[in-house]
Structures are given as C-alpha cells and as structure tokens.
Amino acid sequence: MSDPEILALEGVSKLFPGVRALSDVTLRLFAGQVTALIGENGAGKSTLVKILTGIYQPDGGRILLDGAEVHFPTAQHAAAAGITAIHQETVLFDDLSVAENIFLGHAPRTRFGLIDTAAMMERSGAILRDIGATFDPGLKLHDLGIAKKHLVAIARALSVDARVVVMDEPTAALSHKEITELYDLVDQLKAQGKAILFISHKFDEIFRIADRYTVFRDGQFVGEGAMDDVDQGALVQMMVGRPVDQIFPKRERLAGTEVLRVAGYDHPTEFADINFALHRGEILGFYGLVGAGRSEFMQALFGITKPSKGAVRIDGKVRVLRSPAEAVAAGIVYVPEDRGAQGTIRALPIFQNVTLPSLHVTSHNGFLRLAEEFRLARQYTERLDLRAASLDQAVGNLSGGNQQKVVIAKWLATRPKVIILDEPTKGIDIGSKAAVHEFMAELAAEGLAVIMVSSEIPEILGMSDRVIVMREGRIVAELDGDGLTPETLVRHAAGIGEDP
Ligand SMILES: Nc1ncnc2c1ncn2[C@@H]1O[C@H](COP(=O)(O)OP(=O)(O)OP(=O)(O)O)[C@@H](O)[C@H]1O
Ligand SMILES: [Mg+2]
Fold it and tell me: Helix H segments across 224-264?
C-alpha cells in the first residue's frame, strides 16, 4: 500500500515509578488507513495515546509528523498539530451542556469574541447526527446515560478538524446500533484520508475495521503488518506470547439448594413480571440485546433503583432490598458494567480498594489487620490475573482493564451468597478472560450462586448452566441443555419467528 505515512513514533519510552510502561516502541500511521493497536491489559496502549496527545511526555524517542520531528508539551499542542483522541476514560463535565462539553476550549466565537452559542449548538447537532446520536445538544450531561456520554466524548474528538484520530476502546460502552454507526464513521474518516489508531480487545471488530496492526507486549513492540496477512491465532500468540485456547472451564452442573427467588418484579418503565429462582453453585446467564432491561433489573435487585412491586427471598426468607447496603447485608452483590469511575477510589492503593467492603473480615476490635488485608487482596487479585507493580500501587495508575479486575475482586472478597456480574469480561484482554472465567467456575464449585449478564454468545454458552433471555423488559425464554444454542438465543432475544 502506498498511502503516505503521516505519523511515526520511533524508539519511544515512558517510565513511571516502578513501571516501565513503554520501552523503545515503534508505531506508524498512514493516511486513509486504520491501524489497530493490540496488547494485553497493561501493555502500554493508553500510555502511548497520552504521549501522542501531549498529556504525557516521553522519556525518550521521537515523534515524527509528515517526517519532521514534533514535540507536544501540552494537549493543546497536539490538538493544534491535528491529533485528536477518544480516550478510554474521558473527562466530561456533568453540569455543562452536551454542546459545551463538545466545544470546551475551542468554541466558535462571534466577531466580538464572545462564544457563539447558536453556532455551537448547530455544529454540535450536526456532529451528533453524523454519529447517529439524535439527542438534543442543549441537554445537560448529567441527564444522559453512559452510552450517550460516550457519544459526546466521540463528538468532542470529531469537533476538532484532525488528521490523526485515536480511539482507545471506543465501543466498550456502546450498544449494538451505536457500534454499527461508529464503524460507518470510521469508514468515512478513512475516506477523508485521516490516519486512525484504533485500540480494542474485541477481535471481531479489529478484523472488521483495521487495515494494519501493531502489537505491544509488556511495553515493548512485538510486530506490525497487514491484517490480510494474519489470523486471530497469530495475533493472540504475539500479544500473549503463547497460544491461548478459547476453551471454557469444564464444570459439573451442581443441583444446589435454592438461594434466591425473585417473584413478580415490576418497574413502571424498565421491566415487568420478572420471576426466577437461583441455586447454590449455579451460573445463570442473562442474555438479551442491549436495552432489553437486564442491567436495569439487576440494579433494582441490588437496591440502586426501586421496583414498584415484587418480592425477593434469600434462603427462603423474604428480604426487602431498598439500598445496596441492605443487599450486601442480605448476601447479594452487583458488579456493574460501568466499573470505571464509580467502582474504585483512585487515590487509594489496590489492596485497600479490594478490602474496603470486607472490613468486617479484616478488622479486629476496630483495628485493621494490615497483613490480613494484604492476604485477602492478594488472594483475589492473583486469581483474576491482575497486573500491577505491587498491591500498594494507587488504583488510578492501573491500566483500564486492571482497574476492572480490582472492582470484581473487591466484590468477590465480600464472600456473598449471590454475585451478579454485568458483562464480566468487558475491557479485559483475551488471556485474562480465561482467568476470570476459571475463577467464576471455581467460586460456583464452592457453592456461590452466580448471575452473569453477558451480550457475548460464546461466553453465555461456555459458562452458563441455564440461560434466561430478556426482551423489552420481560423474560421471554429460559433455556438449558440441548435447548441452549446460538440460534435459540438470538431468536428469542430478537423476537424472530414468534406469534405476535
Ligand atoms: N500515571 C501512572 N502512574 C504509574 N503507572 C502508570 C500510570 N499510567 C499507567 N501506568 C502503568 O503503565 C502500564 C501501562 O498502562 P496502560 O494504561 O498504558 O495499559 P493499556 O495497554 O492501555 O491496558 P488496558 O488494556 O488495560 O487499557 C501499566 O502497568 C500501568 O499500571
Ligand atoms: Mg488502556
């Protein structure tokens, strides 16, 4: 391919205290091409994005734009040079409007130098429509859900007229429909001759969207090439340094006693008439299309939102769950899909984040037993394949995927009776996915009851003993054994071939 090279990184390194995040890496981006950057959690991908966008300064190496060396002492310098990014964790402002968030720092001005609100609204509306978002740019950000906030972040990146567009796991927070719109948008950007860097843990999407790949492992460059010349196995081998078999853990199906029974759970708008039972040692999958009401129901069960009616029995006793604290006390914990911002205290070390909700286990007469806290944290983080320099490290300095593992570890460490995992392997690399699945299987074998909400069919089929399918807020099927196939799942979730 003869597309011109727009941007190149040569021998770039970045050190943090105790961590060499990048050592001597190379990256090349070409006009009109999508380059996928692939690597495990903690491989250095987001660090590289921050160097490219002037947020971090490299400790060595060069950045070349059109063949000439450039320096980006601040984010403004990188933006002025035509580089824009959708970051893995975006900073947006809840009290500002959608349009103000999109144009913060570069709003259109009137000839008197004032912010031209009308122009800003109009241009925001146009960018949002381009990415298939139909909401009003005048809305305050705090009125939007996570998927829409993410679309605002994407619109913000596109509001800068850039030559290089960097996307760090842009689809992790989006629904099916929005993901399709994003792919169309990437195709448009390509056609306009922009160079795109695309970071993702989803191989189907990498093969759908990328022209070239670059692989990093432990902060080092491992290889690059054309997507046409590789298959998934070869990429995984480069990424992890060993072949990874995508085999799910073998499990005996245990017919334990009933631990949870939900009867007649109803919500005025989100879900209706939810009835099911869950048993010790069981993994119960919840499948559905995004928007089917699964997460909304789980949040109600955990006491975050209130159902208008319905009853929960735990070990046969009726329990009222009006708050997460009451749910935890009753033995139910919920690990949300959005494990970023709310899930952890960024400034605290890993071990304290993990043990925070379990302090009754580790405190003795009011004194925290540090050794005990460390032991508990180590036990859970090791089993989830968490990669960190030490358990003293602040959670805010971990890579995105490793922060997700901290949140899972923290809730598992409370030793609940029932754990609800919402998209447990989202944002987690392919090697660590197996560790998370293995751990889930072990916990089930020890008698924990697991509810797993997942939109990934292989994960649903590979892990669940039984699957409940939801559509438009209702349970439409319960499948197990031979009745559980990819076809039956999709048919029920989409409502195909049923009587009206
Ligand atoms: N500000 C920081 N201070 C200290 N260490 C950091 C900081 N930022 C990143 N690191 C470390 O640098 C390494 C690379 O992290 P990075 O976020 O670049 O990984 P990543 O490839 O984006 O992973 P993921 O797939 O999980 O998002 C990790 O070991 C991380 O803990
Ligand atoms: Mg990252």
Answer: 232-240
**Closest listed residue to residue 138, CA positions, set 100, 164, 182:** 100
Q: Return the number of other C-beta atoms located less than 10 Å from residue 458's C-beta.
A: 11
Q: Do 224 and 119 have their domain in common?
A: yes
Whether 380 is in a domain gets the answer yes
pTM comes to 0.83
- Torsion, Cα 162 166 169 172, to 10 degrees, reads 0
C-alpha 219 to ligand 1 mean position (Å): 9
**Pairwise CA distance, residues 277 & 283, whole Å:** 12
Cβ(400) to ligand 1 under 6 A? yes
Residue 174 has pLDDT above 70, yes or no: yes
pLDDT at residue 344 above 90?
Answer: no
Cβ(403) to ligand 1 under 6 A?
no
Look at residue 240 in the predicted model and tell me its pLDDT: 87
The answer, yes or no, to whether any atom of ligand 1 lies below 6 A from the CB of 23, is no
Query: Is the CB of 39 inside a 6 Å radius of any atom of ligand 1?
Result: yes
| Positive or negative: CA dihedral 455, 460, 461, 465 | negative
Least confident interval from 123-137, 221-235, 345-359: 345-359
Single out the residue of 100, 95, 90, 192 nearest to residue 146, CA to CA. Answer: 90
CB neighbours of 162 closer than 8 A, spacing ≥ 6?
A: 79, 82, 83, 84, 194
Give the distance (Å) from ligand 1 centre to CA of residue 255.
42
* Cβ–ligand 1 contact at 19 (below 6 Å): yes
pLDDT of residue 340: 63
Residues 234 and 295 reside in one and the same domain: no
Of 25, 46, 425, which is best to mutate to test ligand 1, by the most ligand atoms within 8 angstroms of its C-beta?
46
Using the mean position of ligand 2's atoms as its centre, give its distance from the Cα of residue 87 in Å.
9
Domain span at 374:
258-494
